[in-house]
């Protein structure tokens, strides 16, 4: 039933396809099709040690494919139908013609299956920043992109596989720790409350309280507390870009402020309250 | 351009006038004539178009809060990689050899020798200023989009220095910000 040339191609990649476990549903077929096309190049890449040879081979292959194409069209195989309507140009980027304007006109969008872990396209998982985790999946599902890795993983014994998985888990935990440390490092600022009186006009003042948030105090709550305690207006003022917010209290309330802060927010350390020179 | 970019860098987001919307549509079609059959899917007529303004005079066109294309000052529109992956043949391809991978993935501009490399490099004939997709030897999907600073003929002749200015690359700030808001 199959075209003889196709049959030959199949035998060539039979080894690779065995991994597919002979799934014959639509998805399985699509994957198989990918194999048919790009698996060939992968094989070339693995076997061709010196570049010129590899190039010649690829050239030959290209010509052969070019001749093959009409055959494929005549072939009323399910697989071919799927290939025409399905993945389309993206899955055959390496085929002739290569130029973008010689591809079939744009149709339905190609849905690239991005890696669920790193969010990269499958052939760029190794740049996604969590390769140790991704490579297990990559070797299983996308051997056409990582021929060497797939070979290596396939040759591993069960025990070694477990080791790789453990290493992956460890490295994931490690990167998470690092991320966390980085986050905390960015956040870790000195716990310090500063109080500064500012002169507005004549005998009018504003008292500015900075740094309450370093003790985990909610600024809007604190401003409410201050306005009640001193019977005056108090507001959270947006800090300059890159600076944390601060609280402005109307009037000179430096005297009672420390007491109020310590009473209402026991988490604030009384050694960490500093009075700055009035402005 | 988007190496350090996050949603917090967006200064304003505005729904655009229908005339501006029309302008964007015609501009896109002019730049990428191959988009003609699918432009209605990319910029649906029904849903409103939003432009997000970012630092350095960068504008990002959003459809349903998803970035579609970007523009720096009044340069050409550059589609996002996610859009490009959906329509891989929308624009010319330039392929660099394997050795360039780590530089391009780090956001570097593409240099001539990578494209003229005897086994890894491949080029289409384009002019200076064209928006192109950057492929890497041995990989299927585009890894970056950029603007040509030399024409293909010039690249062949000079074979030196920067020839594609990379705008947007995999795993940069814009790639990670797939949803604005």
TrEMBL record, chain A:
Residues 54-65 have a biased composition (Basic residues). GO terms for molecular function: mRNA binding; translation initiation factor activity. Transmembrane segments: none annotated. It comes from the Eukaryota. Residues 193-265 form the SUI1 domain. InterPro entries: DENR/SUI1_TIF (IPR050318), DENR_C (IPR046447), DENR_N (IPR048517), SUI1 (IPR001950), SUI1_dom_sf (IPR036877). Residues 70-82 have a biased composition (Acidic residues). One of its GO terms (biological process) is formation of translation preinitiation complex. Residues 12-25 have a biased composition (Low complexity). Pfam families: DENR_N, SUI1. CDD domains: DENR_C. PROSITE patterns: SUI1. Residues 1-109 are annotated as: Disordered. PANTHER family: DENSITY-REGULATED PROTEIN, DENSITY-REGULATED PROTEIN HOMOLOG. Belongs to the DENR family. This is SUI1 domain-containing protein. It comes from Vitrella brassicaformis (strain CCMP3155).
From TrEMBL, chain B:
The keyword Cytoplasm applies. Its main location: cytoplasm. SMART domains: PUA (SM00359). GO terms for cellular component: cytoplasm. Residues 92-171 form the PUA domain. One of its GO terms (molecular function) is RNA binding. CDD domains: MCT1_N, PUA_MCTS-1-like. Keywords: Cytoplasm. It comes from the Eukaryota. The keyword Ribonucleoprotein does not apply. InterPro entries: MCT-1/Tma20, Pre-PUA, PUA, PUA-like_sf, PUA_eIF2d-like, Uncharacterised_CHP00451. PANTHER family: MALIGNANT T-CELL-AMPLIFIED SEQUENCE 1, MCT-1 PROTEIN. This is PUA domain-containing protein.
């Amino acid at each position: 039933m199959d075209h003889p040339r196709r049959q030959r191609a199949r035998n060539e990649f039979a080894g690779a396809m065995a991994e597919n476990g002979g799934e014959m549903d639509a998805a399985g077929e699509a994957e198989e099709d990918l194999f048919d096309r790009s698996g060939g190049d992968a094989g070339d890449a693995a076997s061709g040690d010196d570049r010129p040879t590899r190039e010649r081979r690829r050239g030959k292959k290209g010509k052969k494919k070019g001749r093959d194409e009409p055959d494929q069209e005549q072939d009323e195989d399910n697989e071919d139908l799927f290939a025409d309507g399905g993945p389309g140009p993206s899955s055959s980027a390496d085929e002739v013609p290569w130029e973008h304007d010689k591809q079939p006109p744009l149709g339905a969008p190609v849905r690239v299956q991005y890696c669920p872990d790193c969010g990269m396209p499958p052939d760029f998982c190794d740049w996604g920043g969590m390769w140790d985790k991704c490579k297990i999946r990559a070797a299983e599902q996308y051997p056409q992109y990582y021929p060497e890795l797939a070979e290596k993983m396939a040759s591993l014994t069960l025990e070694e596989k477990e080791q790789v998985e453990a290493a992956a888990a460890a490295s994931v935990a490690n990167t998470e720790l690092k991320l966390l440390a980085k986050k905390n490092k960015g956040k870790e600022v000195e716990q310090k409350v500063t109080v500064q009186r500012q002169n507005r006009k004549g005998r009018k003042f504003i008292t500015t309280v900075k740094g309450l948030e370093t003790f985990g105090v909610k600024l809007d709550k604190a401003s409410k507390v201050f306005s009640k305690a001193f019977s005056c207006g108090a507001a959270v003022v947006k800090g300059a870009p890159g600076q944390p917010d601060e609280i402005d209290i109307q009037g000179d309330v430096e005297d009672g402020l420390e007491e109020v802060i310590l009473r209402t927010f026991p988490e604030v350390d009384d050694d960490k309250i500093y009075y700055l020179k009035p402005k | 351009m988007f190496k350090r970019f996050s949603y917090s860098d967006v200064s304003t987001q505005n729904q655009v006038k229908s005339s501006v919307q029309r302008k964007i549509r015609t501009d896109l079609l002019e730049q990428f004539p191959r988009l003609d059959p699918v432009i209605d899917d990319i910029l649906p007529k029904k849903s409103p178009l939003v432009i997000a303004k970012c630092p350095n005079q960068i504008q990002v066109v959003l459809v349903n809060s998803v970035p579609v294309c970007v523009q720096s000052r009044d340069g050409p529109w550059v589609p996002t990689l996610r859009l490009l992956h959906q329509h891989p043949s929308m624009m010319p391809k330039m392929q660099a050899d394997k050795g360039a991978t780590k530089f391009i993935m780090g956001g570097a501009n593409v240099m001539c020798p990578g494209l003229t490399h005897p086994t890894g490099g491949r080029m289409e004939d384009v002019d200076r200023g064209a928006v192109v997709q950057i492929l890497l030897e041995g990989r299927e999907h585009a890894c970056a989009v950029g603007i040509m600073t030399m024409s293909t003929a010039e690249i062949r002749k000079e074979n030196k220095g920067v020839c594609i200015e990379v705008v947007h690359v995999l795993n940069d700030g814009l790639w990670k910000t797939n949803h604005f808001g």
